[in-house]
Amino acid sequence: MIYRLLAINIDGSVIRSNGRLQKGTKEAIDFVREKGVYVTLYTSRNFQSAQKVAKALKLDSLLVTHSGAFVSASLDTPLVQRKLSEEKTFNLVQVLEHFDCNIRISHERFSLGNRRQLSSNLIARAVLSNADPVFYPIQFVESLGDTLRDQPVAAPKIDVFFSNKQEKARAVQTVREAFEDVSIIECAGDRMEILPPGISKLRGLQLLGEHLGIATKEMVAIGDSMDDLAVIEHVGLGVAMGNAPVELKRAADWITRSNNENGVTYMIKEHFRKQFPLEFLKDHIKIKRW
Question: Where are the domains of the chain?
């Protein structure tokens, strides 16, 4: 199989546990791009945060961000932009505020969240996320519902951080029963994401592939968490990081080293060194489209 697109998740994959890029990642990406492979990042992060990582890697590609709700190479000209309506965002927040959780509206230009007092560790994860660059405005209010009533927002994504897994399970069930036309992503631990209907990381990559003329089976994707599962299962070559959960590793075609052991760099050089540059293949071999 000839692979034409490489999609890399950010947190837990290309980023090490200390928040730094893996050693040699830029050089590995340059290596695969020289072979004519399109390289992108796919992530639950907001666009501005993902773009910051892309710039560090010298990537000017279209990025799949907000878990697929915003696909773009720039803030102002998105290829894909899907949002929950202002009314839907408000109604969801009103329901979620009955649970013990922190709610964050992840807009492409800013984040808006409530000040609900939970454990110190939860507050740290909700407020001091690595996904928040200093130029991405973050505002916290006492009542998110009251704020949205006065200043409506159409959200690409809503992140919810719960005090415990039981509270999360109750909220997931309630939202599923009350709202049929939203996508719910149950993330690891005490977090969930709420997205516009039909939106996911996989769908974002599929829409990017349609734009580029690249089939899903011609893609390689590297991921590390359960919200990457659908991507790993459906692309041509699904790669799980060494630090990924067992379920993701079972679904993967390839398991590389962990993010602290330069697993992305290792996988790229090990696999793509065997693939000839696409221009060479076009000139010498009739490439069969899958």
Answer: 5-80+200-284, 86-195
